[in-house]
């Protein structure tokens, strides 16, 4: 399983929206979305 799926499963398991998860770890909602969708900006 790729990391994006693990992040999404953990977030959903905790009952968090992307916005809520982002706030808790102090990143943007877009960052959460990018991680979950495997988008990388190098």
From TrEMBL:
Q: What are this entry's molecular-function GO terms?
A: DNA binding
Taking every annotated instance into account, which residue ranges of this chain make up the domain HTH cro/C1-type?
7-38
Fetch the Gene3D superfamilies from UniProt.
lambda repressor-like DNA-binding domains
Q: What PROSITE patterns does the database record attribute to this sequence?
A: HTH_CROC1
One Pfam family from the UniProt entry?
HTH_3
Q: Tell me the superkingdom of the source.
A: Bacteria
Q: Which UniProt keywords apply?
A: DNA-binding
Q: What is this protein called?
A: HTH cro/C1-type domain-containing protein
Source organism of the structure: Coprococcus eutactus
- Biological classification of the source: Bacteria, Bacillati, Bacillota, Clostridia, Lachnospirales
């Amino acid at each position: 399983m790729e990391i994006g799926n693990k992040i999404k499963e953990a977030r959903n398991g905790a009952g968090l929206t992307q916005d809520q998860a982002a706030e808790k770890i102090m990143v943007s909602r877009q960052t959460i979305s990018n991680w979950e969708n495997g988008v990388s900006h190098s």
